[in-house]
From TrEMBL:
It comes from the Eukaryota. Belongs to the SRR1 family. Residues 23-61 are annotated as: Disordered. Residues 96-286 form the SRR1-like domain. This is Protein SENSITIVITY TO RED LIGHT REDUCED 1. Coiled coil: none annotated. Pfam families: SRR1. Residues 30-42 have a biased composition (Polar residues).
Length: 300
């Protein structure tokens, strides 16, 4: 979820947000559907709680510097092959049809972004935020209000920059348990499996799942990882803790963010590799189920 950090915080086993060390470098970013990712589902799921940045107030000079860096990252996104392809694929009839279905009962769509990471420390989170901003822009009048953003690593300066870019910082750590009471795109770039599980659990009714779209880690990749791990010590527990994520697969239309050739180009092109790190193995997930679908049977 969070890109390499300047210092490696000591992980708290009761936390569901993961902090990743800066030490991982090179052409193969971490596999976000690996076993360590599933193990985060063992974390104790605390109730949503009020949240404020660890630092007390934003330094104006620091905010100004970060805003300039963020604007530079947005320009980089706009000028990149990945950025142009992403916006082009939004016009794909398959995606457009799903958005039309989503807004059939309500003309506007909310955007909630979990797990962006520290936009002050690294370029990857800035590019991930740039995508969210351009997604909202592409939706035009269909987008409802500001993008709502949360990540527990955000500083006061980062919160100030987010607000200046037209976003809202969520005041509570919801642990991913936001109910889709209105059409909502949940943007969760490389979040931990338990956050997807929490989100699905909070919306485990056909009428609620039908109101949401999820842009995040590939559910298919999670499913394949669980299948490959069957028979390995602890694999049964992992399946239990990811039961919503795996169970809903049959009712999900998954559309990959990049085609295979595009992924290869991103991985091999030094100018585009930052986009590969930020967006590899991500997909659109559209929930297609009848209003009377029995979801409880999927988790037994």
């Amino acid at each position: 979820m969070v890109p390499p950090a300047a210092e490696t915080p000591k992980p708290n086993p009761n936390e569901i947000w993961t902090f990743v060390s800066r030490r991982h470098r090179g052409k193969n970013p971490p596999n976000h559907t690996s076993r360590s990712n599933f193990q985060s589902a063992y974390s104790v799921c605390r109730p949503p709680s009020p949240w404020t940045p660890a630092d007390s107030s934003p330094d104006p000079e620091r905010v100004s510097k970060l805003l300039r860096r963020m604007q530079s990252s947005i320009r980089r996104f706009d000028n990149s092959r990945f950025g142009r392809r992403f916006l082009s694929r939004l016009r794909d009839p398959q995606i457009q049809e799903r958005f039309h279905e989503l807004t059939a009962s309500c003309s506007q769509i909310q955007i909630v972004a979990y797990g962006i990471g520290s936009i002050e420390s690294y370029e990857t989170p800035r590019l991930q935020l740039a995508l969210a901003l351009r997604l909202k822009e592409a939706l035009g009048d269909t987008a409802a209000g500001p993008i709502e953003v949360f990540d527990p690593v955000l500083s006061a300066a980062e919160c100030a920059v987010l607000v200046s870019l037209g976003c809202t910082v969520i005041a509570n750590d919801e642990c991913g348990r936001r109910e889709a009471t209105a059409p909502t795109i949940f943007y969760m770039p490389h979040c931990e499996a338990v956050l997807y599980e929490n989100l699905l659990n909070a919306n485990w009714k056909p009428e609620m799942l039908r109101r949401m779209v999820l842009l995040g880690n590939s559910f298919g990749a999670y499913d394949r990882s669980v299948s490959e791990m069957r028979g390995i010590n602890g694999s049964v527990d992992l399946e239990v803790h990811c039961r919503h994520l795996i169970g809903i697969r049959r009712y999900v239309l998954e559309v990959e963010m990049e085609e295979r050739d595009d992924r290869r180009i991103l991985k091999e092109d030094d100018d585009e590799f930052e986009f590969y790190k930020g967006f590899h193995d991500m997909s659109w997930h559209f929930f297609q189920l009848d209003r009377d679908t029995d979801l409880d049977c999927l988790c037994k």
